[in-house]
Amino acid sequence: DAGVTQSPTHLIKTRGQQVTLRCSPKSGHDTVSWYQQALGQGPQFIFQYYEEEERQRGNFPDRFSGHQFPNYSSELNVNALLLGDSALYLCASSLPHGTDTQYFGPGTRLTVL
Amino acid sequence: AQSVTQLGSHVSVSEGALVLLRCNYSSSVPPYLFWYVQYPNQGLQLLLKYTSAATLVKGINGFEAEFKKSETSFHLTKPSAHMSDAAEYFCAVSRRDDKIIFGKGTRLHILP
């Protein structure tokens, strides 16, 4: 049973570029959440997708957008990259209710130069 | 608003000694509380969670945590530290059907 998978593992971009990160949820899960973890910090909630719609959103600008596909996989898009967007981006999948365990993927390390 | 405070960004214990990682939360409604562990270059793994059942919660790898409402605390303990316990530990809080709010983390060092 595959867990949560994310691609790519590492990514290097320059300021102003756009990036797309991908996530495949654990089998049987239909809810995907995205988190940003800056160096030395705890993960910060970006948004959550359920039934192909954004269900909740954290305090992130509109440059951060997402999508969920019918197979429950998800993408995180970041436009107009800033140096401060450098971080580990974590995807977590779960069943719809917030108290259910969220299973995290290994993350995508984004470096913005 | 909900928040979590982890006391001590770094904690060092000797192998075989008691592990105690401190977490205090703030929540206007009964919270759901979690401890996650993160090993280097990996994602987060759930150690245990409290969802208003028993106040003493047992998790994986010998860890446990006690929910104390009067102290708004959810400290993580393990009776005997092992070298493999060296990692970053995150306390987190949530409400039902709401996002998870993480603390800043505590790095646990195990001394031989």
Descriptive report:
The complex is a heterodimer of chains A (about 110) and B (about 110). Chain A has about 110 residues and is mostly beta strands. Chain A contains no helices and 11 strands. In chain A, strands 2, 4, 5, 6, 9, 10 and 11 form a 7-stranded mixed beta sheet that branches. A 4-stranded antiparallel beta sheet of chain A has the order 1-3-8-7, with no helix packed on it. In chain A, a hairpin with a 5-residue loop joins strand 7 and strand 8. Chain A is globular, with a radius of gyration of 13 Å. Classes of the chains: A mainly beta (about 110), B mainly beta (about 110).
- Category from helices, strands and their pairing of chain A: mainly beta
Helix- and strand-based class of chain B? mainly beta
So what's the oligomer here?
A: heterodimer
Q: How would you sum up the major sheet of chain B?
A: 6 strands, mixed
Q: Based on DSSP secondary structure assignment, what is the total number of beta strands of chain B?
A: 11
H and E order of chain A: EEEEEEEEEEE
Strand content of chain A: over 45%
User: Roughly what is the average pLDDT of chain B, rounded to an integer?
Assistant: 92
Gross morphology of chain A: globular
Mean pLDDT of chain A: 92
What's the N-to-C terminus distance of chain B? 41 Å
Describe the structure concisely for a colleague.
Chain A is mainly β and 113 residues long.
Sum up the structure in keywords:
heterodimer; A: 113 residues; mainly beta; 4-stranded antiparallel beta sheet; globular; B: 112 residues; 6-stranded mixed beta sheet; 5-stranded antiparallel beta sheet; 0% helix
